[in-house]
Amino acid sequence: MLASHVRSTIPLFICCLATFTSALALADNTLFTAMDDPATAQKPFEGNFQAGYNAQSGNSQNSRLLASTNMTWFDNDAAYSLWGAANNATSSNVRSSEKYQAGGRNRYNLNDRNYLFGQASWLSDRFNGYDSRSILTGGYGHQILNGPVSDLRVEFGPGVRHDEYHGGGRSTKALAYGAANYSYQLTDSTKITQGISALTNEAITLNSETALNVAINEKLSLRVAYTITYNRKPPVSAPKSTDTTTSVTLVYGL
């Protein structure tokens, strides 16, 4: 029965992957995180927009702007998501950080615990050595916990990565992808989330994001996040292996 169900979903899965491939220029987050289970979705669409800005003037002049959006559509057994993000910073009127991301992914439930996924992403982060980085991956996911308080998902699969380096040169290589996402509803208005992912070949990339989300009202919430990205073999133009980002943003539910 399960084998028959898997065979029937393979054409849909391949079709979704092909769609993401053709839309790669439009479409880990540096951190890929597993999507919510469509079987437990409360409404057919969920979306948000979040933004943060800070500025300092006087003896030093610094500013930073963060903005991102995430939109997800749910069906009975499937979910489809698109996202985008921008992060810019200046110091003494000189640009010190500039990062843009876009991506899309899908999830198709095989049953209440197992699912297939496909995802594609594009990243431009020249201050960390990448004029462009495109990733396509897909595979199998498992819903370990799916309760009102705790949610835990893991997934893994093969993929391909194309890098164009800011210092010159490019490469296209196969990779193995794995990720886990955990959330805990601390109170009615407070949720803690932890996401980790790994993109592995001879150049391993590890990502971790820890976030606290506090609802202000039905539409607005406050989000505090700490992200770590580790590259075992970083680009020559950005030789440091580890980057960290702390962000405080207001999130508006669409």
From TrEMBL:
Alphabetical list of InterPro entries matching this protein: DUF481
Domain of life: Bacteria
Official protein name in the record: DUF481 domain-containing protein
Native source species: Serratia symbiotica
